């Protein structure tokens, strides 16, 4: 494989979202990712959401570029395979509940003794320590306890959720960052391997901006504000004449003046009270009303054309249909053509971030369960007869 992570071997002992999304990112940039799955059924994500035949479309995306091996971790032979793979791995990524790998005999103490340079990324609901460590925790719980749900939605409605598994993917991104920092420490500084302890709760909490000091010093409890960005004015979602919405971010001082001029309110552009964000925030309701009255008299297209001409950041609310049709997404290779088993063509999301010298790539879509078992075992030095013996013993599929 080519890419900036070429030569890095990653062993994935995870399922569903958090750990597999992290390894997907590593695989897109050249890491060899070996995903260990249970022989019966494999990762449950294979059957989640919308299907193509008997396989989830989500699976094909989430597991692209990975090698799948079907190993029974309830057998001594299966555990031995994982230990041998960990010996040559740079990173192990797992999202068992804390203590789960230890019960199997694959804990950090065991694997790090076999490979002192190993990095282990451990993603869990609450982290590997603390009074809540043993509780089950999915991304939704992380979003709730991390503070995100309390601040999401309209003030007169119950707390809302983002329409995707944002808690899981935030944890994945923190896991990737931690893994890369640990690898750098090993490869460049000659350091030892280490545990990267990632909590779903803390990953959400880490993006909650100034939530804590505002509460501690000012007693401010940030709550739901609909489409507005509290304390940053004006920045909101505004209705249009044709039943749509536009997002307008006019919250810097010069942009605010351009916005007010564009909507026919030069008096507000020059109003001394509106010269700074602090002053504008004191009149946020009035400003939102003025901008909303202007937007409601125009279509989405007309409103955006006027704002674009004034160099004011604004945009429509995109559906997936808008995304797929948008020329900017296409020009940035963010909509890729893929081929599924049987020759079916399907559009898939592109790769982020864009590296100019060593870009990521899609080499294959999510594989069939155990598609790479024989090849990976052969790479460990097992001959066909030994592999047949393991298969007969129920250790692999």
Give the helix proportion (percent range): 25-40%
Termini separation:
25 Å
- Summing up helix and strand content along with how strands pair, one would put the structural category as alpha/beta
Using only C-alpha atoms, the radius of gyration works out to 25 Å
Shape: elongated
Helical stretch count? 18
Stretches where pLDDT is under 50 for at least 5 consecutive residues are none
Total beta-strand segments: 13
Beta content comes to 5-15%
Average of pLDDT: 96
Largest sheet: 6 strands, parallel
Q: Strand order, biggest sheet?
A: 5-2-1-6-7-8
Give your account of this protein's structure:
- The chain is α/β, with parallel strands linked by helices and 397 residues long.
- 39% of the residues lie in helices and 15% in strands.
- The chain has helices at residues 18-28, 57-62, 76-87, 100-104, 108-114, 139-145, 166-189, 200-205, 211-218, 253-262, 266-269, 277-281, 284-295, 300-309, 320-325, 327-331, 373-379, 384-392, and strands at residues 9-13, 32-37, 51-52, 55-56, 66-70, 91-94, 119-124, 195-199, 235-239, 245-249, 314-316, 335-339, 345-349.
- It has a six-stranded parallel beta sheet, sandwiched between helices. A three-stranded antiparallel beta sheet has the order 9-10-11, with helices on one face.
- The relative contact order is 0.13.
- The model has no long low-confidence stretch (mean pLDDT 96).
- Keywords: Transferase.
- It holds the Pfam family CoA_transf_3.
- This is CaiB/BaiF CoA-transferase family protein.
- InterPro entries: CoA-transferase_III_domain (IPR050483), CoA-Trfase_fam_III (IPR003673), CoA-Trfase_III_dom3_sf (IPR044855), CoA-Trfase_III_dom_1_sf (IPR023606).
- It comes from Methylobacterium brachiatum.
């Amino acid at each position: 494989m080519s890419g900036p992570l070429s030569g890095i071997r990653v062993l994935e002992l995870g399922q569903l979202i958090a750990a597999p999304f992290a390894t997907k990112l590593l695989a897109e940039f050249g890491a060899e990712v070996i995903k260990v799955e249970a022989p019966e059924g494999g990762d449950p994500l294979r059957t989640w959401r919308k299907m193509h035949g008997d396989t989830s479309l989500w699976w094909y995306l989430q597991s692209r570029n990975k090698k799948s091996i079907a190993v029974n971790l309830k057998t001594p032979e299966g555990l031995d395979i994982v230990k041998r793979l960990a010996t040559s791995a740079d990173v192990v990524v797992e999202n068992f509940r804390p203590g789960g790998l230890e019960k199997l005999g694959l804990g950090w103490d065991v694997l790090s003794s076999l490979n002192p340079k190993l990095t282990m990324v451990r993603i869990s609901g609450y982290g590997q320590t603390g009074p809540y460590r043993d509780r089950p925790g999915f991304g939704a719980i992380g979003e709730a306890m991390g503070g995100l749900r309390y601040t999401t939605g309209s003030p007169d409605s119950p707390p809302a959720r983002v329409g995707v598994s944002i808690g899981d993917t935030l944890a994945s991104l923190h896991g990737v960052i931690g893994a890369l920092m640990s690898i750098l420490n090993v490869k460049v500084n000659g350091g030892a391997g280490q545990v990267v302890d990632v909590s779903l709760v803390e990953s959400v909490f880490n993006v909650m901006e100034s939530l804590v000091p505002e509460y501690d010093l000012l007693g401010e409890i940030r709550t739901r504000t609909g489409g507005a960005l509290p304390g940053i004015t004006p920045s909101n979602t505004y209705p249009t004449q044709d039943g749509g919405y536009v997002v307008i971010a006019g919250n810097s001082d010069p942009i605010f003046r351009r916005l007010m001029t564009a909507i026919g309110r030069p008096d507000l552009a020059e109003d001394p009270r509106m010269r700074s964000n602090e002053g504008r925030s004191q009149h946020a309701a009035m400003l939102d009303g003025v901008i909303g009255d202007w937007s409601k008299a125009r279509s989405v297209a007309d409103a955006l054309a006027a704002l674009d001409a004034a160099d004011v950041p604004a945009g429509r609310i995109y559906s997936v249909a808008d995304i797929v049709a948008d020329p900017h997404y296409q020009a940035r290779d963010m909509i890729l053509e893929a081929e599924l088993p049987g020759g079916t063509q399907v559009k898939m999301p592109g790769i982020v971030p864009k590296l100019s010298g060593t870009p990521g790539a899609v080499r294959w879509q999510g594989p069939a369960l155990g598609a790479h078992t024989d090849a990976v075992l052969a790479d460990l030095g097992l001959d066909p007869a030994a592999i047949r013996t393991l298969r007969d013993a129920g250790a692999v599929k």
